[in-house]
Structure formats: C-alpha cells, structure tokens
Automatic annotation (TrEMBL):
The chain crosses the membrane at residues 50-70, 82-105, 125-155, 161-186, 198-217, 269-291. It is found in: Cell inner membrane; Cell membrane. GO terms for biological process: lipopolysaccharide transport. Keywords: Cell inner membrane, Cell membrane, Membrane, Transmembrane, Transmembrane helix, Transport. Pfam families: ABC2_membrane. Belongs to the ABC-2 integral membrane protein family. GO terms for molecular function: ABC-type transporter activity. Its main location: membrane. This is Transport permease protein. It comes from Microbacterium mangrovi.
Length: 302
C-alpha cells in the first residue's frame, strides 16, 4: 500500500520580494524597529557626557544670548521689535530644529552602514528615526520658550496651539523630503554633507528670525515684489511666522498699535501657507523617488 503525499503550494504573492517595499508607508509596519532606532540615537547622543541632556539647554541658550546681544543690543533691534528676546527665540527654535534635523537625516544611512550592509529593512526607517530624534532634542528648547512666555503673560489658547502644530506640520515633512534627497546622494557622494552645511548657514538668515518680514517687504516692494513672494513661500519661513504668532504675538501689549502692526501676518499669508504646503508635498514626493532610486546600491556604495 503506497501513501502519496502532496506538498502544499503557496502563491508567489504570499512572499515579500527582498528589497521591494512601499517606501515611507513601510514605516507603519515596522514601528518597533523605528522605536529601537530612535532610542539608540537619543541614548548615544550624550553617552559618556558629564552634563548629559543639559547640553540640549546649554547650546541653544548660548546661541540665543549671542544673537540677542549682537542683534538686539549692538544693532538696536530691541528698540524696533517689542519683546525682542521672545521674538528672536520663538523663531530661532524653528531654525535650530531644521538645521539639526537636516544634518541628522543626511547622515542617517552612512551612520548606520553596519546595519544597512548586513540586513534588509526599510531604509526609510533611518532618516525618519533621525528626524524624530531631532524633534526629541527640540523639545527642551520648546520647554524653555514656553516657560519664558508664561512669565511674560502668555496664556495657551487653541489658536496658539494650532499655530504651533501648524508650523511643525509644515517644517517636519519639508525637512524629511529635503533630507531624503541628500541622505541618498550622500551615500554615493559625500560632498552632499558639505552642501547641507551651506544650506544650514543660509537657513539661519533666510527667515525672519533676527529681523522682521517688514524689512524684507520694504526692500522688495514694487518691481521686486515677486522676490518677497518666493521668500515667504519658504516652508521654514512660514513655520517661523506661525511660531511668532503662537508665542510672541500674545505677549505684545494690545494697546501698542505700532507693535500690533508688527505682529500682523504678511499680506496674503494664507496663500503663502498654501504655497509652502505645496512645496513640502512636492519635495516629499521627489525625495522619496530619489531615495528609492539610490537605495538599490546602498550596500555596495557603503
């Protein structure tokens, strides 16, 4: 008597093709790995450091004091902008977040080359983890800003919180889209890191942090008004103005008409928000395409 056995057959669709994924959408299926990468990044940041997390407060504090002394005292900006320290710091935290995030995301694949070469996992996990780690390091600066604003009469409202969340909702995907491009290119051409350093330098001065948008508008008004439109459509600039409205605006005296005029949004700011969102979405899509194109050779290039 013979016994015949049948081997079950599985459809090809039941298996995942190595190296083939859905890009950023795969992040949601690998939340545990993302959590591990974020924990690794934050724990290594200040390992063997005496001050530890205090450096998250010390560095931006020194930077703020330096800018406040030079721009506020030496150049007299405190005479033109009421509560200039809060104006400066509320914009500076956005620029600091952008600068740290773009640097972290650009280096994320190269810094994790041991993992990239040995095992396959969605490569987008690394830049996303780097972005979230930068956000974690941003929180101490935000906490200092909130405390200072509260001591100056700031009261949180739904409008203020909405402005803050709107600013973060624009700048975070913008950094991710830009970072995906430089992150991918940096694996093959390390010159990308030098380009990013130039972008970080420009970012410090390309948004109304140490000056006001009115100064730019005054010089760009007329035949050069299109330059102001481009300037204000920058997602980082949009986020900075939203932060100003959320934290600096409420502490400005309501009986000071000149000061209230400075608090007002630029003309057509609603359109600038729309343009900023469009730029962010396009950059995120382009960044994903570039990243997917270059990731095929990550292991070899590393």
């Amino acid at each position: 008597m013979s016994v015949t056995t049948t081997t079950p057959t599985l459809a090809k669709s039941a298996f995942d093709t190595p190296g083939k994924g859905r890009g950023l959408l795969d992040i949601f299926n690998h939340r545990y790995l993302l959590k591990l990468l974020i924990g690794k990044s934050t724990s290594l940041r200040y390992r063997n450091s005496v001050m530890g997390w205090l450096w998250s407060y010390a560095r931006p504090t020194v930077q703020f004091l330096l800018y406040w002394f030079v721009m506020g005292q030496l150049l007299g900006m405190h005479k033109n902008v009421p509560y200039f320290p809060i104006y400066l710091f509320s914009g500076l935290v956005v620029v600091n977040f952008f600068n740290e995030a773009i640097g972290n995301v650009t280096r994320s694949i190269v810094d994790n080359k041991a993992l990239v070469r040995k095992i396959y996992l969605p490569r987008e996990l690394f830049p996303v983890a780097a972005l979230i780690s930068a956000f974690v390091n941003f929180l101490p600066q935000l906490a200092v800003l909130v405390v200072v604003c509260i001591f100056n009469g700031w009261v949180p409202t739904f409008e203020n919180i909405g402005m803050f969340l709107g600013g973060m909702a624009i700048v975070m995907p913008f950094v991710l889209g830009l970072g995906l491009i430089f992150c991918a290119v940096n694996v093959r051409f390390r010159d990308a890191q030098n380009v990013v350093e130039i972008i970080r330098t420009i970012a410090t001065w390309s948004s109304p942090v140490m000056y006001t948008w009115q100064m730019v508008y005054k010089h760009a008004h007329g035949w050069h008004s299109w330059l102001f439109d481009i300037y204000m459509s920058n997602p980082v600039t949009v986020a900075v103005e939203l932060f100003h409205k959320a934290f600096w605006g409420p502490v400005v005296p309501k009986d000071d008409l000149k000061a209230l005029a400075q608090v007002a949004f630029p003309p057509h700011f609603g359109l600038y928000i729309v343009f900023g969102v469009i730029v962010t979405i396009l950059l995120l899509l382009i960044g994903q395409m570039v990243f997917r194109r270059f990731e095929r050779t990550f292991a070899q290039d590393l």
